[in-house]
Amino acid sequence: xxxxxxxxxxxxxxxxxxxxxxxxxxxxxxxxxxxxxxxxxxxxxxxxxxxxxxxxxxxxxxxxxxxxxxxxxxxxxxxxxxxxxxxxxxxxxxxxxxxxxxxxxxxxxxxxxxxxxxxxxxxxxxxxxxxxxxxxxxxxxxxxxxxxxxxxxxxxxxxxxxxxxxxxxxxxxxxxxxx
Length: 179
Hints:
Number of helices: 9
Mean pLDDT: 95
Order of helices and strands: HHHHHHHHH
Number of strands: 0
Helix content: over 70%
Distance between the termini: 41 Å
Largest sheet: none
Strand content: under 5%
Shape: globular
Oligomer: single chain
């Protein structure tokens, strides 16, 4: 096991977070990190918005089965930063669900599979975290879709999701059974 961990800058940029997460995944795959190092790296990454965004975009899309079942240390690190983690996870489940439909319509089966992987990994993390913030945000997202207004209106509008995509998001989020 390595005695060093990846240095995470306090004011990390999004692209730096992506690169550091890739390096982290390489070390994780090679079993070069102790449990405490795993938790420390992820915790330091997800304590800022840029770090968390870079972590999730890399972790959720990595073409490596090591990301299919998050280690308890990763869950613990995410649990330590509930607001940032909850917000990004709820948005990731929505985006990956909508993207599956988008890619199905274009008959891009490779991208459908990629979006399905992101949705499955996000669902796994959400269900393991059991954060009340995620429950509240999921409820708000579904309410926004059903009412046409609410705290997620800007998010849904920015991405231009149509009725079918919004209904699919509401169905998937409701099926998580977390609220």
